[in-house]
Amino acid sequence: MTVTREEATALFTAIWADLLGVPAGPDDDFFDLGGYSLLVVDVVDRARAAGLRIRAIDVFEHPTAAGLASAALTGRDPGFRPDMVAHVWATSAGPWQAPPSLVPLVPDGDREPLFVVHLGTGHVRLFTALAERVRCGRPVHGFEAIGYRARVRPFLSVGETAERYLSELRAVQPTGPYHLAGLCAGGVVALEMAQRLRAAEEEVAALVLVDLPSGMPELDPGWGLNEHFEYMLGALKVQFGLHDPVADLPGVLAELQRRAWFEDTDGIDDFYRLVVLWAAAQYAQEHYEPRPYAGPVTVISAAEHIDRARAYWSPHLPTARYHVADDVRMQHILREPGVADAFVEALS
């Protein structure tokens, strides 16, 4: 059945109004009406159910009902760097060939180490300041994402990522008891590492998970890596004003560094490659099926997410102790006294 532009416009206008709960017209901007990045997933799902093949980047690029209808019927704008995923795969070595991803955050200490898994963006050194306060006499090592420092393709599964990190962990500490932590999406990897250590009959004395996703999947498990990459860029476009991928990029990168999502040493030339790594981490998380974990575990979640996090994770983490942090932003959550107290309690 052929859909006219008027019918497509009416469909998107109705989707706007239904999802946002406000009156919507064909020229109203989805995000100005209160739309946000995760709701874009619902827009795409509803459009596809009605027979219109759009992608998430189309909503970010054409945020009015009339504009999106036109893009859906005449072909989409290719968006930001649409070939970047293919470029990374064509110009990078395989992930098992990557240099070591374990970096010393606090090298001295005479107790068993604490191993910390990076944010979804791949950055882990932001944990250093908190590590000094909570380590209880332990050296602290952090896992940076595979490919964060070198041109290496990322893994696309949590299990493969966990296995690679465990090979490095065992080289530093061959036997337990082990102490693990994970930041944001890295908490899912840390959980899988703990599962595998316990399956090998090793003791995991502490597992601290900071700002875990409050439910999975968050996006659409049917999306490919390129759609995840485009979604990430679209979300950055809306949140930070990334309209021109060249002119606007320095300001966007500076803001991401201020928020501790990327390191201060990350440069403009690395930006799109690092977003591919970020998208790969999101893709892997979307396809991860958590199993029940009965070991000691501490979950630290922002106040606005704690109820959803507890509802989702309680069946998987029946012995978890939950601690509330007031500020969801990672650069602040790691500074809160209560977060430090939760780490000390778990590690001591």
Summarize the structure.
Helix content is 45%, strand content 10%.
CATH class descriptor of the largest domain: Alpha Beta
| Total of domains | 2
Radius of gyration: 21 Å
Overall pLDDT: 91
**Beta content:** 5-15%
β-strand number? 7
Helix content: 40-55%
Q: Count of DSSP helices?
A: 14
- Shape, principal axes of CA atoms: globular
Give the helix/strand class.
alpha/beta
- Uncertain parts: none
Order of helices and strands: HHHHHEEHEHEHEHHHEHEHH
Q: How is the largest sheet built, in terms of strand order?
A: 1-3-2-4-5-6-7
Based on the coordinates given, report the CATH architecture of the largest domain. Answer: 3-Layer(aba) Sandwich
In the CATH scheme, what's the topology name of the largest domain?
A: Rossmann fold
Largest sheet: 7 strands, mixed
Ends: how far apart? 65 Å
CATH homologous superfamily descriptor of the largest domain: Alpha/Beta hydrolase fold, catalytic domain
